[in-house]
Automatic annotation (TrEMBL):
<dbReference type="GO" id="GO:0030976">
    <property type="term" value="F:thiamine pyrophosphate binding"/>
</dbReference>
<comment type="similarity">
    <text>Belongs to the alpha-ketoglutarate dehydrogenase family.</text>
</comment>
<keyword id="KW-0324">Glycolysis</keyword>
<dbReference type="GO" id="GO:0045252">
    <property type="term" value="C:oxoglutarate dehydrogenase complex"/>
</dbReference>
<dbReference type="InterPro" id="IPR032106">
    <property type="entry name" value="2-oxogl_dehyd_N"/>
</dbReference>
<keyword id="KW-0786">Thiamine pyrophosphate</keyword>
<dbReference type="GO" id="GO:0004591">
    <property type="term" value="F:oxoglutarate dehydrogenase (succinyl-transferring) activity"/>
</dbReference>
<keyword id="KW-0560">Oxidoreductase</keyword>
<comment type="function">
    <text>E1 component of the 2-oxoglutarate dehydrogenase (OGDH) complex which catalyzes the decarboxylation of 2-oxoglutarate, the first step in the conversion of 2-oxoglutarate to succinyl-CoA and CO(2).</text>
</comment>
<dbReference type="GO" id="GO:0006096">
    <property type="term" value="P:glycolytic process"/>
</dbReference>
<dbReference type="Pfam" id="PF16870">
    <property type="entry name" value="OxoGdeHyase_C"/>
</dbReference>
<dbReference type="InterPro" id="IPR001017">
    <property type="entry name" value="DH_E1"/>
</dbReference>
<dbReference type="InterPro" id="IPR042179">
    <property type="entry name" value="KGD_C_sf"/>
</dbReference>
<dbReference type="InterPro" id="IPR005475">
    <property type="entry name" value="Transketolase-like_Pyr-bd"/>
</dbReference>
<dbReference type="Pfam" id="PF02779">
    <property type="entry name" value="Transket_pyr"/>
</dbReference>
<dbReference type="InterPro" id="IPR029061">
    <property type="entry name" value="THDP-binding"/>
</dbReference>
<dbReference type="Pfam" id="PF16078">
    <property type="entry name" value="2-oxogl_dehyd_N"/>
</dbReference>
Length: 933
């Protein structure tokens, strides 16, 4: 065609002339959501040159359209639209887009019909200048996936109502990725809001609802008034979970880890994981089969295997305290450990499922912290499935303006662009469809996905609670509302899929099975070996023997490995000086500092086949510039980790700078450590007092997990601690809190004072056949203290000394006072004693405060049995530190008739003073008090 003819076509085409406004509205729709316009328009708009200028002139846009039309002339073609037709077409596309964005606000989600969703004007035809006269007109459906390119407006509108305003309310348009949105649209829209399941699948769903309802009624009649945190009202959780597991198994998952709070937990244990009902009934009766402290039945975990078409899937329900959402990062850590064990990088072999309450997911900050972990290198698990059992009420709080500041309890998930599928729990088929959709999305995009199971709570917060006192209207409605099993049974009866007699038989058969007390889950299978072997760590004595021997030559060879860098790798000048010194240390030409001693410990472990995992906010370099485990090339910013190059067949050495979180990260590492005993798992606080941001993890998991749940865990906490005049916030790691929680040999609390001690402490933690937490008060100034050094021979001794006696050449017979201390204050005491040329005061370091080393202390004090004056010296205020928690141990250790006094700061509500001059005055005073006779 001649140039003139083409020009005429362009002028009369939808790209110019009277249709310019139509095109520009299409372009606005495209900018809002590329999927909202027909494919040919999307392709055209994508070819327009991008502009960084937000205020582009309309004339420039029109010129770009003209140029694009000229280039695409042969492909596009087309005739002229009337201005009215063009505007109506745009309005229809805007209507489709509005339903995708806001259809969930008109969805039929609440089984009780109590939700008062505001009317959304965008979803009305009139808002888009469309009326009854347009209902029979044909329009292009754009990217709406209804199996045709054009349809009558009435058909389009009915499809949108069915897809987006039925039992499923889909929120996904906040996702940035066009690919992900397009994928979700294809899955949702092709179903037209009416997912299809076979008769057998429907019968199975009914059977699972019968089980969920049957267990609650059985428990209610057999143990009236007992707390069980009933699932009634949210019965669909059982078929939902089983569907998630089946789908995951079909896709190749081998393990599923579940975390949940109380609501419905007993039901999940029996009807999903296959716990024998008779075991649960024994727990209701208060019978115990353990000498441990134990926990209430609705905190307990469980493991089993579950048969799927893709093979057996190992299920693990995490143990959980009453601190609701704190289990979430624990589950993620456990899944990451299982992935690492299987060599899985994308999460395809292990799936985390967390179950939340509506009040908790919106109210607990740990949810945000855990979401923030989801796409990071150190904590990624390939996405998780989050299920909210949305009772529409907390304990007694139901008013939305009291419970949260967002429309939905799930809005927090939008921070990671997770799709959110709200679903009416009284529609089991919609629930099953969403379950399959969620697993497929997670497996496809390796991202989090949320299912908001909108239901109700048939009883109060627990079965002894009276909900009518605070929610009278809701509970009047609940009292009259049929249970989910009845609603679905009537639906299947009306469809001639089951008979009423079939339903009665299902109910009777399930109750009979509970009477027998055996497993009631058809898919339950005997457990195979899925996890690491814990057998060698069970019931081991605290002082079980282990081989930690290592030679000086081996240490030298390791030293060479960890100081060898790639050719041309340029270090920062300060780091380079540190590595030059480490080369001399490795050769035995100078004593080792703290960083080198610690590094050699890690190197020796990975060479011996013991993996290490170290995380913390600055752990790669070390907050105090001492570790330098991860090096940064000053030329191209590439990183190099020498510990990953110790030997060809070494174990992994993973060192990650963490997100700025304490609670979620520590909980994640706890979960990892409870799932993998063959990795030394460590978390380092930036400053020791930051650990109090994770106090729930310390109190509920670390200190008591073994006593409550029998869960072994070897997590190590590295907590910088020491009084350096830096003020109250960064002086104390709150040693007293850990000592207060010390009992039952639940962990060890150590304060090493030399590189050799930290070397052997780290090795002891991993090499001895004991898996219990290690709490370490690590130093700050000692990292470069000229006296805090060790030789290679000191390291090769292979022993961590719980107590270190006097190291200066004192005549023990002349000693009139013995000073006990721990940590950095030892060096202050020694320096002051030497300056004063005292020879009658001995200083004994207690390197392990718990379990208290009575035998080692007795050995050290043998030569001081004549001494009557003993002092405990600490830097912390008297009501903090070790004094209150440990003085009975010191009194037991000293000779009969001797006295024990305190030297340290006076009691204080604050950990330390904020003024350097006052700090020095206090420090000098406590040192002098300790040494003066």
């Amino acid at each position: 065609m001649q140039e003139g003819a083409m020009q005429a076509w362009i002028e009369s085409s939808p790209l110019a002339g009277g249709n310019a406004a139509y095109v520009e509205e299409l372009f606005e729709l495209f900018l809002d959501d590329p999927n909202s316009v027909p494919a040919e328009w999307r392709e055209l708009f994508q070819q327009l040159p991008a502009s960084e200028d937000a205020d582009v002139k309309h004339s420039e846009i029109r010129e770009q359209f003209r140029a694009a039309a000229k280039a695409k002339y042969k492909q596009v073609g087309g005739g002229e639209l009337t201005s009215e037709e063009a505007e109506k077409q745009v309005r229809v596309l805007q209507l489709i887009n509005a339903y995708r964005f806001r259809g969930h606000q008109h969805a039929n989600l609440d089984p009780l019909g109590l939700w008062k969703q505001e009317t959304v004007a965008d979803l009305s035809l009139s808002h888009h200048n469309l009326g009854k006269e347009d209902l029979d007109k044909e329009f292009n459906v754009g990217s709406l996936q209804i199996g045709k390119e054009t349809a009558k407006l009435s058909e389009i509108h009915a499809a949108l109502e069915s897809i987006y305003c039925g039992s499923i309310g889909a929120e996904y348009m906040h996702i940035v990725s066009t690919k992900e949105k397009r994928w979700i649209q294809q899955r949702l829209e092709t179903q037209l809001g009416k997912p299809s399941f076979s008769a057998e699948e429907r019968k199975r769903a009914l059977k699972e609802l019968v089980a969920a309802d049957g267990l609650e009624k059985y428990l209610g009649s057999k143990f009236p008034g007992a707390k069980r945190f009933s699932l009634e009202g949210g019965d669909a959780l059982v078929p939902l979970l089983k569907s998630l597991i089946r789908r995951a198994g079909e896709a190749g998952s081998k393990e599923v880890v579940i975390g949940m709070a109380h609501r419905g937990r007993l039901n999940v244990l029996v009807n999903v994981l296959g716990k024998q009902p008779k075991e649960l009934f024994d727990e209701f009766a208060g019978k115990s089969s353990t000498d441990k402290a134990g926990d209430v039945k609705y905190h307990m975990g469980f493991s089993s295997d579950f048969e799927t078409d893709g093979g057996n899937v190992h299920l693990a329900l995490a143990f959980n305290p009453s601190h609701l959402e704190i289990v979430n990062p624990v589950v993620m850590g456990s899944v990451r450990a299982r992935m690492d064990r299987r060599g899985c990088k994308d999460g395809s072999l292990a799936l985390p499922i967390t179950i939340h309450g509506d009040a908790a997911i919106a109210g607990q900050g740990i949810v945000q912290e855990t979401f923030n972990l989801s796409q990071t290198r150190a904590y990624g698990v390939g996405g998780s499935v989050r299920v909210v059992v949305n009772n529409q009420v907390g304990f007694t709080t139901s008013k939305q303006e009291d419970a949260r500041s967002t429309q939905y309890c799930t809005d927090i998930a939008k921070m990671v662009q997770a799709p959110i599928f709200h679903v009416n729990a009284d529609d089991p088929e919609a629930v099953l469809f969403v379950a399959q959709l969620a697993v497929d999305y997670r497996n496809t995009f390796k991202r989090d996905v949320v299912i908001d199971l909108v239901c109700y709570r048939r009883h109060g917060h627990n079965e002894a609670d009276e909900p009518n006192a605070t929610q009278p209207l809701m509970y009047q409605k609940i009292k009259k509302h049929p249970v989910p099993r009845e609603i679905y049974a009537q639906r299947l009866i009306s469809q001639n899929i089951v008979k009423e007699s079939d339903v009665k038989e299902l109910v009777s058969h399930y109750r009979d099975a509970l009477d027998v007390g055996e497993c009631v889950v058809d898919e339950w299978r005997p457990m195979e070996s899925h996890s690491s072997d814990w057998a060698s760590f069970i019931d081991k004595d605290w002082d079980a023997e282990y081989d930690a021997s290592i030679t000086v030559d081996e240490l030298k060879e390791l030293g060479k490995k960890v100081t060898t860098l790639p050719e041309g790798f340029k270090l920062n000048s300060r780091v380079n000086r540190a590595y030059d010194e480490r080369v001399k240390m490795a050769a035995g030409e100078r004593d080792l500092d703290w960083g080198m001693g610690e590094t050699l410990a890690y190197a020796s472990l990975v060479k011996a086949g013991q993996a290490i995992r170290l995380t913390g906010q600055d752990c790669g370099r070390g907050t105090f510039f001492h570790r330098h485990a991860v090096l940064h090339n000053q030329t191209d910013a590439e990183t190099y980790t020498p510990l990953q190059h110790v030997a060809d067949d070494q174990a992994p050495a993973e060192i990650y700078d963490s997100v700025l979180s304490e609670a979620a990260v520590m909980a994640f590492e706890y979960g990892y450590a409870t799932a993998e005993p063959h990795t030394l798992v460590m978390w380092e606080a930036q400053f020791g007092d930051f650990a109090n941001g994770a106090q729930v993890v310390i109190d509920q998991f670390l200190s008591s997990g073994e006593q409550k749940w029998g869960r072994l865990c070897g997590l190590t906490l590295l907590l910088p601690h020491g009084y350096e005049g830096q003020g109250p916030e960064h002086s104390s790691a709150r040693l007293e809190r850990f000592l207060q929680l010390s009992a039952d040999h639940n962990w060890s609390v150590c304060i090493p004072t030399t590189p050799a001690q930290v070397f052997n402490m780290i090795r002891r933690q991993q090499l001895r056949p004991v898996r219990r937490p290690l709490i370490v008060m690590t130093p700050k100034s000692l990292l470069r203290h000229p006296e805090a050094v060790s030789s290679l021979e000191d390291l090769a001794e292979g022993v961590f000394h719980n107590v270190i006696g006097e190291t200066d050449a004192l005549d023990s017979k002349k000693v009139k006072r013995v000073v006990f201390c721990s940590g950095k204050v030892y060096y202050d005491l020694v320096a002051a004693r030497r300056k004063a040329k005292q020879d009658n005061v001995a200083i004994v370091r207690v390197e392990q405060l718990y379990p208290f080393p009575h035998a080692e202390m007795a050995e050290v004090l043998k030569e001081y049995q004549h001494v009557e004056d003993f002092v405990w010296c600490q830097e912390e205020p008297q009501n903090q530190g070790a004094w209150y928690s440990s003085q009975h141990h010191f009194r037991e250790a000293i000779p009969s008739g001797a006295r024990l006094t305190y030297a340290g700061r006076a009691a204080s509500s604050s950990p330390a003073v904020g003024y350097a001059s006052v700090h020095k005055e206090q420090q000098d005073k406590l040192v002098n008090e300790a040494l003066s006779i």
